[in-house]
Design a protein that fits this description.
One of its GO terms (molecular function) is transferase activity. This protein has 412 residues and is of the alpha/beta class. Helix content is 37%, strand content 14%. The chain folds into two domains: 14-223 and 347-408, Rossmann fold; 251-334, formyl-coa transferase, domain 3 (2-Layer Sandwich), CATH 3.30.1540.10.
């Protein structure tokens, strides 16, 4: 007898996923990981754009590249994939029927783009008043930029994030940089999933769904966090400072005898322990360095004292010494080194998701949410294009003849 499966937090929640690329799929993957039944709707033949965003590609049992880009796998596990041509009336009818039974719809079409298909919020709300409908766009549903297409890189530039990322002008490698990951898309997905859960909870009291307007630019401004707060307090735009923290010191990377070590000293006690560990307890007594505010104001003098000392040992030697003294520090890992880190391995952050077709399992990164009673579950690898079309349509009550007719007509 199979053991009783562990309950999931969103068991019974049905999500119709009309999104593609990253922000929307990141949102719906979060919901799927928490137990929602997410049905991802893709274009026949082509599918989600990210299925083709390679290299890198997945590899087959012989180690050869397939036509499936690994990008897609980052944000589409635990979902079922169906192919439906929403440009056809029959396809629109299928999706409206699914929306009638759904709790949530997520889409990232241009503003008003789904109205022509009868798949916009007003049309679907009339059929299902309990529906929570989340639209993700570059700039939101109103304002002078509402009609523009929006992409992560554009928004990183427009919201000011690139102006504070990278080395300062006039230094080696100086100039604005994007983050190494599409962070605005990822943050938008996380904000969207939070908003959806809030709307579902509100529905418990009102019995009614609601519309959620998510914009990449809004999120980009929000995640400026302390940098935005600093500007609002002073009227001065922060600049780029490389790996140096604008409000803490020492909080950056330093050259060692064989590489780099990162120090993240966040209070005066940690700084005093750092000084003692390096054999320079006098630094903590120096009025220029005794408090964090003083250290920030006298950063150049502090670094001039620290840098020669930190070059005298290897990265590993410093980490061993500082960790023993409770001084926050660490290496600057490559992605390969990060996956090989003992803590990463102990936390099980690399997962393997078996595929139904017998091809090699797809490796992924574990969801970081740890719930004690309703944990995240991994029950499906990222799906092949249209893998579940037959299954989902049968659940809707369509018989074999009807499904075959839709397939022959190019609707699915």
């Amino acid at each position: 007898m199979n053991p009783t499966p562990t309950p999931t937090a969103l068991a019974g929640i049905k999500v119709l996923d009309l999104s593609r690329v990253l922000a929307g799929p990141w949102c719906t993957q979060m919901l799927a990981d928490l137990g929602a039944d997410v049905v991802k709707v893709e274009r026949p033949v082509a599918g989600d754009d990210t299925r083709h965003w390679g290299p890198p590609f997945l590899r087959d049992a012989d180690g050869n590249d397939t036509r499936d880009a690994s990008y897609f796998t980052a944000c589409n596990r635990n979902k079922r994939s169906i192919t439906v041509d929403m440009a056809r009336p029959e396809g629109q009818a299928l999706l409206r029927r699914m929306a009638c039974e759904a709790d949530v719809v997520v889409e990232n079409f241009k503003v008003g783009g789904l109205r022509q298909y009868g798949l916009d919020y007003d049309s679907l709300k009339a059929l299902n008043p309990r529906l929570v409908y989340c639209s993700i766009t570059g700039f939101g549903q109103d304002g002078p930029y509402a009609e523009r297409a929006g992409y992560d890189l554009m928004v990183q530039a427009m919201c000011g994030l690139m102006s504070i990322t990278g080395h300062a002008d006039g230094t080696p490698g100086g100039g604005p940089l994007k983050a190494g990951v599409a962070v605005i898309d990822v943050f938008t997905g996380l904000y969207a999933s939070n908003a959806i859960l809030a709307a579902i909870n509100a529905r418990h009291h009102s019995g009614q769904g609601q519309y959620i307007d998510m914009a990449l630019l809004d999120v980009g401004m929000a995640v400026l966090a302390n940098q935005a707060a600093g500007f609002l307090a002073t009227g001065q735009s922060p600049g780029r400072a490389g790996n140096v923290h604008p409000s803490l010191a020492p909080y950056q990377d330093f050259v060692t005898s064989d590489g780099n070590v990162l120090l993240a000293i966040g209070n005066d006690g940690q700084f005093a322990r750092f000084c003692a560990a390096t054999g320079h307890a006098e630094w903590a007594q120096d009025a220029r360095f005794a408090t964090n505010t003083a250290r920030v104001r006298n950063r150049a003098e502090l670094l001039a004292s620290m840098e020669p000392v930190l070059r005298t040992r290897t990265t590993a030697e410093w980490i061993t010494l500082f960790e023993d003294k409770a001084v926050p520090c660490g290496p600057i890992n490559t992605v390969a080194q990060a996956f090989d880190d003992p803590q990463v391995r102990a936390r099980g952050l690399r997962i393997e998701l078996p595929r139904d077709d017998g091809q090699p399992a797809i490796a992924g990164v574990a969801n970081p949410v740890r719930l004690s009673a309703t944990p995240v579950a991994y029950h499906r690898a990222p799906p092949a294009l249209g893998q579940h079309t037959q299954e989902v349509l049968q659940e809707m009550g369509l018989d074999e003849a009807r499904i075959e007719a839709l397939r022959e007509g190019g609707v699915i």
